[in-house]
Amino acid sequence: MRKTEKGMGDEDEEKLSKMGLGKEKEGSNLDMNFSESFSEPGFQDSGKKVMGSEFFDHLVDDRGKGSSSSSEGDVESRETRKYTNEEKAEGKIDDYDYDDDNIVDNNSNLDLNLRPDELDASYALQLLSKIMHREVTAVNQESSRYLNQETSRNINQESSRNLNQETSRNINQESSRNLNQETSRNINQESSRNLNQESYRYHKDELRSRHEYILSNVAEHFAHPGIHNEVIKRKSSEVDKELDDSQSPFSLAMELVKKRNFSQSVDNESSIKWLPAQNKGHYVSSHNVPKLMDLCLNVLATNADKIVSLENVPDDLRHRLCKMVSDRRKMDAHFVELLARDSPTEIRVWDTSQLTEDDCIKIFCACDTRNLTVLQLDLCGLCIHEHVLRRILAGPLCRLHKLATISLKGAFRLSDAGLSALAKSAPGLLSINLSQCSLLTSDAINDLAIHMKSTLRELYIDDCQNINAMLFLPALKKFKHLEVLSVAGIQTVSDDFVIGLVEACGMNMKELVLANCVELTDLSLKCVGKTCPKLCALDLSHLHNLTDSALQYLANGCRSICKIKLCRNDFSDEAIAAFLEVSGMSLNELSLNKISKVNMNTALSIAKCLRKLLSLDLSWCRKLTEEALGLIVDSCPALKVFKLFGCTQVTDVFLKRHSNSQVHIIGCQTLPFLKHMDALGHQQAPLQYSPLVT
């Protein structure tokens, strides 16, 4: 019995009823399954066409009887088709290819020759489940694909968001870093600009104050000389009020000089009368024969590196040899070590610039200093330092209880602490030379006053610019036996300092060096003349504020002066001549270097009064004639050194025809002068004016 496509036979209904599936149940189950399957999430918007009953009808028509609406089928299904046993065995359906997802299981026992209306309900369910499984699989795949796409989209969005955030963070960090760098650069530039402006402002103020100081203290001397002259005249008038004594030695000498000048002007003839010696060539022949001792010392100094010992050589010859070796720049560690052997009593070295710190430590740590009384290490800036002194002083052989004189001139690295350690180790020091020790301050002098106030006699602190004169003045007043003080070049030395010093120590003062202390005036010399009766040596070089009154105070008060330097001052020819008339009998050293007013009056006074003169410096005094110079040389029998640098008026008439056979004329034309610079000899005694008491 053949059934239509829209209906089922009685046998089919009976089979379905046995399986518990009726028509209504089948329809309801199918509808339910399809509705539930195709209503799941993801099917509505997947965009794929879902296979339904049409696909099922296509399968039925392909395998059995019935009409098919598909045009793609190759088998006519209006008649019953008989399948071969091979096809039945293989369960192969050629009309519709399902690839790998076959709807019908190959192992099923279904009879493929059955008509569609004879199909078992189980076959329908199995077929339906396969279809649903395929659809569900497709749906799942689509859902998975959609889910993957959605997940990928979400991941991409999240990654993009994270990337954007990270990029934004990096950009922000980089921007912040660049901003910070730019801000820091701007701040630094602004700070540097402010600092430069502040520094410029500070330097500008400093320059302004310096200019004001120059204008008030220096420039007025040139721009307004009247003001400066008024100040000097005021001070001079204050001094002259107390010195209005026409019967003083200086005033009497000045009157004699003026009368002599007046008589010369009336007679219209020169008072200088000098006749050159007739024996020409006397000067040359008398100075060409060197002494044997000088020749021997010359050879030793030239070959100083070959000397192996100075044992049993007297100190005076050692000193001369050391000076010659230093002049030849051959003073090295080897020669200093020779001087330090065998417990010496004196070590004098004028140039130690070639010694290192290690050389100094090695030499003096091994030196037995128990008998050492004089130690001179000049120009020792490279080898003398605080730690070097401490190493030497801590040595087992260092015993300085006999040390009386020490000179560390030019020790520019010597500090206050190093000097204090030295003062503690050598409390018996009588003379100390600290000239050109630029690191020393006023505290160093205060330490010396603590340890040596009852012993120190000589103190040299030339050109120590860090020392304030008024700050160490109280310490100087504590030195009860101070005889020599040298403060040359210290700009803070003033009239108040000199007055305070000589009032406290003037009675014992024998040498005073005030060269280049440009603030000094006649008031200082007035006090010196009153309070320093024992003064033997005085250096007043380069003091432009001094007038002729200063010489008047010295001549009337200091009658024992043996050595005086008046270089580069503005004293008159008459005042110098009057001073020499009064104080010239005791002078043995006189320096009038570059006093432009020196003339015939001075020459006559020198020739008349300075019989004991040993050294004379008239360099750059170009108003003196050859006759005046010849008269001076021939009239001073003790003269040994005569310096005439810059005197272009000198000729061979004077050089070769004077009668003084022992004088060394230095500085004229091409005559050798270095070997005669020290013709008077060096200091031999530890102290200049007092004996050494052991």
From TrEMBL:
<feature type="region of interest" description="Disordered">
    <location>
        <begin position="141"/>
        <end position="199"/>
    </location>
</feature>
<feature type="compositionally biased region" description="Basic and acidic residues">
    <location>
        <begin position="75"/>
        <end position="95"/>
    </location>
</feature>
<dbReference type="InterPro" id="IPR006553">
    <property type="entry name" value="Leu-rich_rpt_Cys-con_subtyp"/>
</dbReference>
<dbReference type="InterPro" id="IPR032675">
    <property type="entry name" value="LRR_dom_sf"/>
</dbReference>
<feature type="region of interest" description="Disordered">
    <location>
        <begin position="1"/>
        <end position="100"/>
    </location>
</feature>
<protein>
    <submittedName>
        <fullName>Rad7, putative</fullName>
    </submittedName>
</protein>
<dbReference type="GO" id="GO:0031146">
    <property type="term" value="P:SCF-dependent proteasomal ubiquitin-dependent protein catabolic process"/>
</dbReference>
<feature type="compositionally biased region" description="Basic and acidic residues">
    <location>
        <begin position="1"/>
        <end position="28"/>
    </location>
</feature>
<dbReference type="GO" id="GO:0019005">
    <property type="term" value="C:SCF ubiquitin ligase complex"/>
</dbReference>
<feature type="compositionally biased region" description="Basic and acidic residues">
    <location>
        <begin position="55"/>
        <end position="65"/>
    </location>
</feature>
